[in-house]
Amino acid sequence: MITAQEVLEKFCLLAGLEPDKSEQWLTLCQLGIDELADMATLPETPSEADKNKLLFACAGCALLRYALSEQAGAGRDFKTPELSMDSSSYPVEAARELRRDLLKSAASCLGLHSSVLKRTVG
């Protein structure tokens, strides 16, 4: 079973965020799990190696959403007590390519051929 908290750890690595200041991105991580689950049935008890691939694939899905949300706010700095964003955004195309690569890596864990994911995710 994959949890949003586990995905958040991998997401922070990919996004370069501090884990202790990233709880606001937990929902994006759950959406990453949901996105992967929509593509294929997630295994209940994957091996550690497969689980790691699945976690990174979910984190890659979350990273693309993160990059898109940052791009939407590009050029507008804002700050709240919980969140601060500046006008520098995570490169969307880099996030898209990383997501694609991570999904391909996880394809065998999902019982899919990487060509199926290529058609699904571009």
Give a description of the structure.
- The protein is mainly alpha-helical.
- The protein has one domain.
- Helix content is 61%, strand content 3%.
- It has a two-stranded antiparallel sheet with strand order 1-2.
- It starts with a helix and ends with a helix.
Question: What does the secondary structure layout of this molecule look like, with pairings?
Answer:
Elements: H1 4-15, H2 26-39, H3 48-72, E1 78-79, E2 84-85, H4 92-106, H5 114-121
Antiparallel strand pairs: 1-2
Helix pairs in contact: 1-2, 1-3, 2-3, 3-4, 4-5
Notable traits:
single chain; about 120 residues; mainly alpha; two-stranded antiparallel ribbon; 2 strands; about 60% helix; globular
